[in-house]
Prior knowledge:
By secondary structure, the chain is an alpha+beta fold. The chain contains twelve helices and ten strands.
Amino acid sequence: MDGHEDVTSKTALQRLAWPEEEAMWTDIGRFGSRLEPGKLAWESGHSTFLSTAPGEGSFAFSGVTLGIVLRSLPSHHAAYGSDRRRHMPLSAGQGWLFPAGFDGWCRWDEPNDFLNLEVGAGYLADADLEVPTAFRPLKGDLDPLLVQLGLNLHAAARESSTLYRDSLAAAFATQLARVVTGVNEQDRRIDPRLGRALQYIHDHLAEDITLADLAAAAAMSPFHFSRCFKAQTGLAPYAFVIARRMERAKELLRATRLPVAEIAWRVGYRNPAKFATQFKRLTGATPGEWRGN
């Protein structure tokens, strides 16, 4: 190290920097317009940013892959691990996290901007994720820090020094390993039938979730499902969904500058006032106060 400022790294970040009154998550599509299209490589991984017309097709990823949607896809349909095709709308900032070797099919009827980041086994092993195929695929909401690191890693891949780029890649792999480890620890503690209900909650958090929906996901009667769910989680299904919505709201308040009304919508509340009342009842502060602190 010679003590000189990393000019190329600074240039890459300045090119993507937001004015103070803006933030990446308030208009993630505009952030995407500043990303370089095509495939960029770093040690033990690569990222690909594409802008596509409406279409469909099969996919397969050899390494652990994070995908970030930069333009909302209300028509998105997909089949993961089976031939069953389901409607899975995605908002800007949502996406997928797939284990190595994962394949599937998807279709979208709108123009699509998305970023895929595929991480090699070397970085993941350094982050203590030894088996990159051994975790449940995630769809929909993503860890906000993982999204920010992924976007900045692609932005830095060509114009930054190797040291800076590799440091970002290591941070990205470490956060990815934390997310995957959390998923695996949860899955080990939960009855697989209830695990399907938890996945349903994760995938449909912005929608109206009913007891019948959750019981059907678990292939159980509503009465039996309610008893088993509370025995394993400590909460009734309704209380668990509210708690999960509040946790997701905290993540978005902490990591983004999305308006409170938008956050309310993303966690399943069509009435922002009702969301604010529920949030204050459970946390002791309004969403604005919680964000400020």
